[in-house]
Amino acid sequence: MSDDIQQGDDPQGDTKQHMHVDSYERKWVMISIGFLVFFVIMITIAGLALGIQVPTDEGRVNPNTLEDALPWSEPGLREIVPGEEYEVYIVARRFSFDPREITVPKGAHVTFWATSADVQHGFALEGTNVNMMVIPGQVSKLAAQFDEPGEYDFICHEYCGLGHAVMYGTLTVES
Fold first, then answer.
1. How does pLDDT run across 56-110, given as a tens digit for each residue?
2. If DSSP codes are grouped into helix, strand and coil, which group holds residue 89?
3. What pTM value is reported for the model?
4. Strand (E) positions, 82-162?
5. Tell me, what DSSP letter sits at residue 60?
6. Phi and psi dihedrals of 28, rounded to 5?
């Protein structure tokens, strides 16, 4: 019988086996559990306190008929509440975004709706937490508030062909 397993008698007459865990191994198990708890706490803080969000799949659209379907046939900025709330409908195509330039006032809450007409693209608004996949047939949605005036470039972060490097645009926040 191994040194790590000890047998003892149960008062009812059953034999039990007791495992001995080395203190070094026990220490590493506890460290691993500590890391898991730490990561769960950090994810919770990122999601609740910092407002980091995951893009949501808001529905489906036929990428072959985008030209005929509103709002995708007329992409661009829509003012929902004057000076406060906006929606931007973005169509990604090889190798451009439509619209390529967007202007909103300082303090605006902007909801981005995006889809692709051809292949998989990405939409990352530099300097913000707006970053989503733009997939043909899927409508993605993310929201952000812009309290600092300036220019925020957006780029395609998924390689979509030889013209990928020229696929960018600008969001301007005016004071």
1. 667 788 888 888 888 888 899 999 998 889 999 999 998 899 999 999 999 999 9
2. strand
3. 0.69
4. 85-93, 96-98, 101-105, 108-116, 121-125, 131-134, 138-146, 150-155
5. E
6. -70, -35
Residue written as token pair 């990604």? 92
CA distance 84 to 44: 28
Tokens of residue 109, six digits:
């809450």
Helix (H, G, I), strand (E, B), or coil: what is residue 79? strand
Residue 17 is inside which H or E element, if any? strand 15-19
Residue 98: CB atoms within 10 Å: 16
- Alpha helical stretches, state H, the chain: 23-48
Run of H or E residues at 7: strand 5-9
In tens, the pLDDT along 60-70 reads 888 888 888 88
Could you give the CA distance from residue 29 to residue 55 in angstroms, rounded to a whole number? Answer: 35
CB 101 within 8 A of CB 77: no
